[in-house]
Specification:
about 400 residues, alpha/beta, seven-stranded mixed sheet, two-stranded antiparallel ribbon, 13 helices, 9 strands, elongated
């Protein structure tokens, strides 16, 4: 089956449209933004490597958070899963331990750009003595400059956001703030605490030159002196047992998890392309008749273009005057042989009752002898039109 150029173009447009829809309608790419596997500017791979270079072990939580917050559920081994294309260099052996059980003692859990509100289960988990560090919480936009540098004992910290935490109470303690509000603050909850940050990029890869950012986050997670875990499940990384559990089931269960909006949009685009490509609805396509070429009209148009470019208005006026004189003679019943202008003027006056000057101005205009402009030419054509109207009334 061979495709025409038009069909190839249509298929190309359809594929491009589907790609664009996939980019904007599909779920966002969370594998890089805020993930310790991420090497993109919004990732935290550089900060994770720094912590490992200091001999600190950071576990990656790759199961649903509900199984961590609910102590009643049985704990399963936390098996680390590598990001696609990531190497094993620089990752601690503890990260791959298949026998490492989920934590039962208090820990420090770092969540980056989760965006989900705190649940009752998470608050109850913090009350038991755990520490939850949330980077990128929803805070109001203030008049603070978007890009600012804040002095701190660990070094200058660069902040690129105008959002600030403004609610303060007795249980809240600012850890990093300016005159516009808190950027990082701590709130005691039972035996534990929650540390909030208004920016998700506090120690992202983009701030590798701002060592104060890396040191500040390192101090936040190490000060409680608890085992450090980082949430990777929210970024799409899952343990093998979780993947097996989520992918098992019927076809209907799989389709229920598929983004319905994206599928509907893709189906609509495909249908529109098929209708447009076939260009038919109730039968085969009907070929359009080939328009016939009027050689005389084409010749006249070509000649007029040449005369216009050459500015040969005298030739055009002379030729049209001769043709119009013969038409006037025919209308007055004087035949087709050229007659003296005086004879024609007398016949015109007798038969139409109009002054001879009207006909003489149209058939023998003064513009014969010079090159005329467009306004004079239009005026002369109007006189020719008037002559034809008088002859029509005579008939």
């Amino acid at each position: 089956m061979s495709l025409s150029k038009r069909q190839i173009w249509l298929l190309s447009i359809a594929l491009a449209t589907l790609v664009i829809l996939s980019l904007f309608a599909a779920p966002g790419n969370r594998l890089q933004s805020g993930s310790t596997y991420g090497r993109a500017p919004h990732g935290y791979g550089a900060w994770y490597a720094l912590m490992e270079s200091r001999g600190l072990t950071i576990h990656r939580w790759q199961k649903p958070l509900q199984s961590l917050f609910q102590p009643s559920e049985p704990k399963t081994p936390a098996i680390e899963t590598l990001a696609p294309g990531a190497s094993t260099a620089g990752i601690s052996a503890a990260a791959f331990s298949a026998t490492a059980a989920a934590p039962t003692d208090p820990i420090t859990l770092l969540q980056i750009s989760n965006g989900e509100p705190l649940s009752v289960a998470s608050m109850s988990w913090v009350e038991r003595g755990n520490v939850l560090v949330l980077l990128g919480v929803n805070t109001p936009v203030t008049k603070a400059p978007f890009d600012s540098t804040i002095a701190n004992p660990v070094g200058e910290i660069r902040i690129q956001t105008s959002r600030r935490g403004v609610d303060r109470d007795a249980k809240t303690k600012p850890l990093l703030n300016d005159s516009f509000g808190s950027i990082v603050w701590r709130q005691a909850v039972g035996k534990g605490q929650i540390i909030f940050a208004s920016t998700p990029n506090l120690a992202a890869n983009a701030y590798q030159n701002a060592q104060g950012n890396y040191e500040f986050l390192a101090r936040l997670v190490t000060t409680p002196n608890l085992p450090i875990w980082v949430d990777e499940y929210s970024h799409g990384y899952k343990d093998s047992d979780v993947i097996q559990q989520e992918t098992s089931g019927s076809l209907l269960g799989y389709l229920a998890k598929t983004p319905v909006l994206l599928v509907v949009l893709q189906t609509i685009v495909i249908l529109l392309v098929l209708i447009w490509g076939q260009n038919r609805r109730l039968g085969p396509a009907i070929a359009l008749p080939t328009p016939s070429t009027d050689n005389s009209k084409a010749y006249i148009q070509a000649l007029s273009a040449v005369l216009r470019k050459a500015e040969s208005s005298q030739f055009v006026v002379t030729t049209v005057c001769k043709a119009e004189q013969l038409e006037v003679q025919k209308a007055l019943g004087l035949g087709t042989e050229p007659l003296p202008l005086a004879t024609l003027l007398d016949a015109w006056t007798q038969q139409t009752g109009q002054p001879a000057a009207i006909l003489e101005a149209a058939l023998h205009p003064a513009i014969h002898s010079r090159r005329i402009g467009e306004s004079d030419l239009l005026k002369w054509l109007q006189e020719i039109k008037t002559i034809r109207q008088q002859l029509g009334r005579k008939g």
